Amino acid sequence: MIRYFIYILLLFSFVYGVDTNTSLVTFNGDKGFADDKLAQAIDAKTKSFWEFYKDDNITINNDIINSIDESLKIFYNYNGYYSSKFDITKSAKKIDIKIEKNRPVLIRDINISSDFNITEIMIFKVGDKFNSKKFIKIKKQIIDKLLKNGYCSYEVDTKAYVDLEKFSVELVYRIEKKGICKFNDINITGLETMGKRVILSRIRTNKGSIFSSTLVQESSDNLYKLNLFKEIIIDATKKSNNNVIVEINVTENKKNYYGEVGLGYDTYIGKRIHGTLSKNNFLGGGRDINFNFAYSLQEQLIKLSFFQPAFTNIKDNYADLFLNWGYSNLEYNGFREKKTGFNTYLEHENHRLKIRLGLSIEDILITNVVPKNSLTQAINSGRFNLLYPYVNIIYDHRDSKINPQFGYYLSYYAEFGGSFQDTPTPFFKMIAEARGIYTLSNLTIATVVRVGAIDEILESGIPESKYFFGGGVNSNRAYKYKSLGVIKSPTQSSIFGASSMLNLSIEANYALDNIYENLALAVFTDNSVLNEKSYDFEGDIISSIGLGIRYKLNFGVIKVDFAFNRKDFRQNGFSFGIGQAF
Fold first, then answer.
1. Strand segments (E) across 41-154
2. Strand partners, 326
3. Final residue of a domain: which of 252, 275, 305?
4. How far apart are CA 286 and CA 264, in angstroms?
5. pTM, full prediction
6. Which domain range does residue 137 map to?
7. Fewer Cβ within 10 Å of end Cβ, the chain: N or C?
8. What is residue 544's predicted lDDT score, i.e. its pLDDT?
9. What strands, in cross-sheet order, belong to the sheet with 106-114?
C-alpha cells in the first residue's frame, strides 16, 4: 500500500513538476536574506514538499526574467535597503544574481501625537532598520484597534520622511480617536423564504450598544454558520453623529440539499464509513433536517436531527430549538453499549455566553463483550431507562475559538434525573471545565482543568457508560479514547467507570513562523484522577508527557501527538485530531 502511494507521489511530481521553459537561479553576494525569501520576491519556484527527493534548486519561468531587477528593488526597498544593487548575469538555462544590499535606512526619530494608547502596537524603536511592510502593518493595526474599541470616526495620519543621503527616516504618527460610536438601526434586505428574526437572532450589533468591528465580524460568521445564505454583506460604514447604521443584504441559497459519503479513520474506533444527508431551509423559516450514519467494527451509529433557529424570543433574547433521535452501538473496554435515545434542547447564545436547557430520554442495554465467567473484571450488565433534564452554561472569553492566543473559557454541565427499571434510581452528574491561554511572542501556554462527579442514591443504578472514563485527544493522550477506568495505581486502571474525575493538562506550543508558516511544535503533560467514590479527587494519578505537531488551517488546527505514561514508557499512544487548539 505504501509502495503504491510513493509511486503515485512520484508520478504526480513528475507530471506537474516538469517545466522546460525555466532557468536555474542562484543568489550570491551580500544578500541579507535567505534564498527562499528572495525566490519568493522574484516569483521563482523552489521545490515543494512532495519533491523532497530533489535538489534544492531555484527555477524561474523564462517569461518573467526581465522583471527580476524591478522585483528585487521593490523587495529590498520594502526592507529598508534603498541603495541596494543587483548584477544579473544570464546564460543558457541559468541566471546568476549577485546582490549588494549596502547600507540600510535606520529610524532616526519617532514622533507620536495620540490620544489613543498604541504602545503595544508600536514595534519600531529608534535605531531599528526601517521596513515599509511593518510601517503599513502598524497603521492597519492602529485602525483595527480603534474600530474594535468603538471609535469609528477616528483620524489617523502616518508618514515616513526618508533621507537617502543620511540613510535615516523620521516616523510621524498623528492619531485622534474622537467620540465613542454606537450601533443604531439595522436594515435587512434580500430575504425571500424566512423572517427577519432568523437574521436578528445572529446579529450582535444591537441598537444602542457600543460599536465594535469584532461584533460586525461575529455577526457575519454567525449567519454563515446557518448554511442558509449564498452571500452576506454587512455594511457598517454609514454613520451620523457617531451613530452607525447597519445595512445587511443577504442572498438565500437556492440549492438546499447536501449529501456526502466518506471513508475515515479514528484513533479509537478505527476505519469507518460515514455519511450525511441534509435539507437546509426545510419548509422555509431557516429550519434544517439532517440524517447521519457511521459504521465501523467498533461502532454503528444513525442519527436524525431537526433545527429551528430563533424558535423563541423574550425581549430580543432568541433561543434555537434542537430535536435529535439516534441509535448507537459502541464497544468500550470490557463492555458494549446499545443506546436508543431522544434529546431536545433550547439554546441561547449572545456573544461570549451560551446557555443550553434540555431533556433526554434514553434506553440503554449494557452487555459484557466476552462471557462473564471468563472475565477477571465484569461490569453491571442489563437494560437501563433514563430520563433527565440538563443544563450547560459556557462563557468563552478567548480571542479566537479556533486558534486562541489569549483568554479563558469556562463551562458547567449538570444533569439530574432517574434510572427507571425495577428500582427507580435518582442520580446527579456534573462536569466543570476551565481553560486559560497566554501567549508571549511565539510561545503559547495553555492549561485545561476538567472536574466531574456522579452522585447516585443506589449503587449500580445507572449504566456503566454513564460513568467517567479517561483517555483520548481531550484527556490523557497516552491512552486510547475512554480506555481508562477507575485508577488502581500510576500505571494501572480497571474497566469500571469512575464516579469522580479530575484531569489537568498543561501544554506549551512554539510557533515556527520563521521556518514554516502555520506550523508549531508542542510539549504537554496530561494528569488524570479517576476514583470509584463520588467527590473523591485524591489518590493515585496517571500522568503522561508527550510531544506534538500543530498545523493551523482556516477552519481549525490539525493536532498530532505522541504521549507515554511517565512511570511506564511501554504505555504510549498516538492521537490525531482536528478542531480547536485549546
1. 58-61, 85-91, 94-100, 106-114
2. 303, 341
3. 252
4. 30
5. 0.81
6. 106-176
7. N
8. 97
9. 106-114, 168-176, 155-163
